[in-house]
Write a structure and sequence with these properties.
mainly alpha; two-stranded antiparallel sheet; elongated
Length: about 300
């Protein structure tokens, strides 16, 4: 059982407040960028069909020029930089819209808010970094887990408290984080295996980490994702991978060690060993003496 009276120390509570507030600001910024794209679509400007990041250097320069009154597609497309210049013909077609003063006013307000949020995020990041001194070794170890970057590692420490002594096992921390299947069984028939509602900040971090880990080639976590996906689908495979990442994080934080990659064939090897042990046990129960020898 978990210690019900456990309350994280002030440094952890303050770090958690800051990281959660930063998450909200990131979401607010994403909403404003989506609003910007919607205004451009309303103006008939299909910039997002060509430019991956409308708030990148090239995209922002073109939108800023539109706001300032430049509507010539050739002039606007020429503001592209780097690899985007290979798409000049497509850019010229995308920038042929019906951009009006109304759109310029809305985008000006959106830019103002995005700039404000960027400044807020910079200040929050500086404040958070200033409080991470005692946790740097733990963060460095967590950062070795596939899919977990520095921001994800900070979130895991802030949400779990970093102190694994209050969790008797990795299963307990996964249950506490609601990253394990629910139990819904009646008359021997299992129904839904939905996860419970838990810490939404920790869950979002682990889901994001799982999405990154599933793209890590030749890794045990990628193998875990594909093993579950074959039978349960993408969403449940992502949750299962997030569960595995939280289990790994438990041992990394508890033992103060880095993640040791087990390889893409880890689960095949582990299940093979289990099958061998099971068969040996059955034969021994029947009175046989079993000696295992690998084939050449």
């Amino acid at each position: 059982m978990l210690k019900a009276s456990f309350v994280p120390p002030p440094p952890i509570r303050e770090l958690r407040d800051l990281t959660r507030y930063r998450v909200q600001q990131v979401r607010d910024r994403a909403q404003e960028v989506n609003r910007l794209c919607k205004v451009l679509e309303d103006a008939g400007v299909k910039l997002t069909s060509v430019v991956t990041d409308v708030m990148g250097a090239s995209g922002r320069a073109m939108v800023r020029a539109l706001v300032e009154g430049t509507t010539d597609p050739t002039v606007l497309a020429d503001l592209a930089r780097g690899a985007l210049r290979k798409k000049l013909p497509a850019l010229r077609r995308a920038l042929q819209g019906r951009f009006r003063r109304h759109h310029a006013f809305l985008i000006e307000q959106i830019f103002t808010k995005i700039d404000f949020l960027d400044e807020t995020l910079d200040r929050l990041t500086t404040e958070i970094d200033g409080r991470l001194g005692p946790f740097e070794p733990m963060l460095a170890h967590l950062d070795t887990i596939p899919g977990v970057d520095r921001i994800g590692a900070i979130s895991i420490v802030a949400e779990t408290g970093g102190d694994m002594s209050r969790f008797p096992s990795a299963g307990h921390v996964c249950s506490w984080g609601a990253l394990c299947p629910g139990q819904n069984e009646s008359a021997g028939k299992r129904r839904s295996g939905k996860t419970r509602k838990g810490n939404r900040y920790l869950r979002a971090t682990l889901i994001q980490a799982a999405l990154g880990a599933m793209r890590k080639k030749n890794s045990a976590l990628q193998a875990r994702y594909y093993r579950v996906k074959r039978h349960r689908g993408h969403k449940k495979a992502v949750v299962a991978t997030g569960h595995q990442i939280l289990e790994i994080a438990y041992y990394v934080m508890r033992d103060g060690v880095s993640y040791d990659e087990l390889g893409a064939d880890y689960f095949d090897r582990r299940h093979a060993e289990r099958a061998v042990r099971r068969h040996v046990k059955q034969l021994e129960a029947l009175g046989f003496h079993v000696t295992i020898e690998k084939a050449a």
